[in-house]
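step=encode ok
step=design start
structure_in=
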């Protein structure tokens, strides 16, 4: 990772009657612009993410998506869809007077990167994507119903605990009811359990500090509620839309590097492989000793090599 730097601009941008986004800009003021799209949805950004980019070359833009991180109102589901976020990215680009920028996103950030690029291909210089996620029903079923549970049975028991046995046939829907309960303790208990499941499974070697992050009620409430909202609504897209040939054709010309952990159980390698099959022009790196997290050493190394390779584009 590049050494830690301070942001030279920290501000907010009102994008609707309801939502105000937190954003920051760091690195080189007249550098090549790059926007970082965080995961979740609902995950938010941290100063750590500045380190994927050479600060002597990049003008680094980080922002928290609707309801996430320091954006307000926290955990709000109203007017919060994939296409609202795509419009927000454009509003931020125009606000910062940027003509074209590089786009960097992992996990849900890769979903949003593809959706944004397919909507505004003339504004994207390159894509660096990690842990490909396209929000197909098969991907959600693997992680939230029957798949990853076979690898992390003890964590899966914790995930199941808040849900009555009679409601476990559709866990995303069952969690939706609890995450939107009028009872605050019910909501928070469900939010912590939902978040712990993802924190448990995000690295090849379970990281207790990452699991403990789910005990932060503000983070867990936004992360769980917004993720579940998107998943219940199938990402507000056709199933498999981002992989459709007519959608890929819109971005086929954009230089793209994909970094995928071989043992990623949150966003398994099959989705990155499906993207490569429909879009053979992409460069796909499968890291043999990594899970999902961008902080896995092998993944971080390749992500930085990718941003370095595009820095002068």
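sequence_out=
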């Amino acid at each position: 990772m590049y050494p830690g730097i301070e942001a030279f601009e920290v501000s907010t941008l009102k994008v609707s009657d309801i939502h105000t986004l937190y954003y920051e800009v760091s690195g080189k003021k007249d550098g090549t612009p790059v926007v970082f799209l965080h995961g979740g949805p609902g995950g938010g950004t941290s100063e750590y993410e500045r380190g994927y980019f050479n600060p002597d070359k990049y003008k680094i833009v980080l922002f928290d998506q609707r309801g996430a991180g320091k954006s307000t109102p926290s955990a709000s589901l109203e007017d919060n869809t994939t296409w609202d976020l795509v419009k927000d990215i454009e509003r931020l680009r125009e606000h910062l007077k940027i003509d074209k920028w590089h786009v960097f996103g992992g996990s849900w950030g890769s979903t949003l990167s593809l959706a944004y690029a397919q909507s505004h291909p003339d504004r994207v210089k390159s894509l660096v994507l990690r842990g490909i996620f396209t929000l197909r029903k098969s991907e959600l079923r693997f992680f939230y119903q029957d798949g990853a549970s076979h690898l992390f049975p003890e964590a899966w028991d914790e995930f199941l605990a808040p849900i009555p046995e009679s409601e476990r046939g559709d866990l995303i829907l069952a969690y939706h009811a609890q995450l939107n309960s009028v009872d605050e303790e019910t909501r928070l208990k469900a939010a912590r359990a939902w978040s712990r499941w993802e924190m448990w499974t995000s690295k090849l070697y379970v990281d207790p500090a990452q699991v403990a992050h789910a005990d932060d009620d503000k983070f867990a409430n936004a992360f769980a509620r917004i993720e579940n909202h998107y998943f219940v609504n199938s990402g507000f897209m056709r199933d498999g839309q981002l992989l459709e040939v007519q959608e890929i054709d819109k971005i086929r010309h954009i230089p793209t590097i994909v970094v995928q952990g071989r043992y990623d159980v949150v966003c398994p390698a099959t989705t990155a492989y499906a993207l490569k099959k429909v879009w053979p022009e992409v460069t796909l790196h499968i890291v043999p000793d990594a899970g999902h997290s961008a902080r896995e050493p092998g993944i971080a190394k390749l992500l930085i090599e990718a941003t370095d390779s595009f820095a002068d584009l």
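step=design ok
step=annotate ok -> The chain has two domains: 7-136+237-310, 138-234.
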